[in-house]
Amino acid sequence: MDADAIEEGRRRWQARYDASRKREADFTTLSGDPVEPVYGPRPGDAYEGFERIGWPGEYPFTRGLYPTGYRGRTWTIRQFAGFGNAEQTNERYKMILEAGGGGLSVAFDMPTLMGRDSDDPRSLGEVGHCGVAIDSAADMEVLFKDIPLGDVTTSMTISGPAVPVFCMYLVAAERQGVDPSVLNGTLQTDIFKEYIAQKEWLFQPEPHLRLIGDLMEHCAAGIPAYKPLSVSGYHIREAGATAAQELAYTLADGFGYVELGLSRGLDVDVFAPGLSFFFDAHVDFFEEIAKFRAARRIWARWMRDVYGARTDKAQWLRFHTQTAGVSLTAQQPYNNVVRTAVEALAAVLGGTNSLHTNALDETLALPSEQAAEIALRTQQVLMEETGVANVADPLGGSWFVEQLTDRIEADAEKIFEQIKERGLRAHPDGRHPIGPITSGILRGIEDGWFTGEIAESAFRYQQSLEKGDKRVVGVNVHHGSVTGDLEILRVSHEVEREQVRVLAERKARRDDAAVRTALEAMLAAARDGSNTIEPMLDAVRAEATLGEICEALREEWGVYTEPAGF
Ligand SMILES: CC(C)(COP(=O)(O)OP(=O)(O)OC[C@H]1O[C@@H](n2cnc3c(N)ncnc32)[C@H](O)[C@@H]1OP(=O)(O)O)[C@@H](O)C(=O)NCCC(=O)NCCSC(=O)CCC(=O)O
């Protein structure tokens, strides 16, 4: 790009920056020297390929979504938490909010993630263990007791049974007297990554996609700020994918949901802002920063050029980041604080919109209160002390980071081609039921391609670790203990007994006939193709349990068994 065009862009950015609201904060270095809100080429210099880098707040958004970067608003500190019953988790949420957490993020226990009630024999031993147990709207009410749902953005990490759990959240809001249309938050929902990596699905892919389409329709029509899909690379990366695979599979999944929305006749400029993303911040500092920058650029280009999005918001890739659980070690666990800080810094330099920092004890158990607090404070140290929130995309223009960004983008584009090819194998006539990327994803799930590719990457990494080419302190180098014992959070089995008892009591009190009628109406909608959300809401209002709703749908739609493969 020639120098004049760069200057014109700078002036455009400056005008938008001047017109934007900034935080009341001291934007100088520790020594008191002023810093600019963003840096670019020296005035008068040309810069080849600058259109790929650009200015913050402008297409292709490589440097961030807002002209102000974090000067307008810092990222959301959103710590993922949940354990035991709704009451215990509610206490933890209040502690997080009092300590300066900016939003909530619900971790559900395994039975809830699988759409099963706490009294299901298959839930035995798991109730309240890796997250909070939620059986019905009544539990959801307790979970958010004294937390005004209209004022706090709430993320819920659930995908198989996302839609019924979302209905419980809506009903809890209704019972607080909050108008659902003002709710703001995020539901994970992303089912593609379940088949690809995390493996927590309820049905075949098609009925899941149908439910997701219902949810997108419902939110686009009536809950404009809510993000019904958090397209997640985190679990793909944690399963062993490389950075480029994480990026490409996740963005492809995002394209799949765009195709789903379009196939339902929704307006891309209306529903696309409801898609947000969730990435892993692993420990290779620069590669991660490059990944985040490439993610925004690829998404904006595809949204504009392939799917016809016209507004900035529909071209924006907004993302939450979690530091890499898989990088934490049980050996010398206090070192995990350092790893997490470095990973969090990469997320921030990559422009994350929201961040979870893992606690040092998470390889061993759910975080203790003390470990959870250190994790939260890690973000606050970055935010308040280091000056990283003063300048947008401070590594933009670094030869290394720009080249890494380009390379990861090119790798991702190659993977999109492979996915499209798989779609054509499934539909050689080019007539795709939902869209070309969706066909490729579904084919890649069916034939185990994604799983195989990830397994291959995980295997290669493990080999290099075992050979000593890759080094991890306390694991294959620098052995020995630097710390004493950790105090681990243990969730008592009493939680399960109590949850089962309360559930039985609630079931005894409710009107069973009303539950049956509501479930029948929901199944009728499932059969006739109309939107399932309203009848599901009625079932939830009647205190139908999560297990009852999911079981009814399982019976209707059948279950999914992964093809065997190696
Ligand atoms: C979009 C995100 C990513 C972030 O939403 P947030 O509300 O926190 O932040 P945001 O939208 O970026 O910002 C809030 C509002 O401020 C505005 N805003 C932000 N920065 C601004 C700036 N500089 N200038 C002007 N406005 C600005 C935004 O446009 C938005 O307004 P408007 O709303 O008006 O636009 C959302 O989807 C989210 O919260 N995701 C979290 C997902 C999550 O927690 N997942 C946990 C998974 S845990 C998991 O899966 C477990 C893994 C495991 O351990 O196994």
Automatic annotation (TrEMBL):
Gene3D superfamilies: Methylmalonyl-CoA mutase. Residues 29-558 form the Methylmalonyl-CoA mutase alpha/beta chain catalytic domain. Keywords: Isomerase. One of its GO terms (molecular function) is cobalamin binding. InterPro entries: Cbl-dep_enz_cat, MeMalonylCoA_mutase_a/b_cat, MMCoA_mutase_a_cat. It comes from the Bacteria. Heterodimer of an alpha and a beta chain. NCBIfam families: acid_CoA_mut_N. This is Methylmalonyl-CoA mutase. It comes from Streptomyces poonensis.
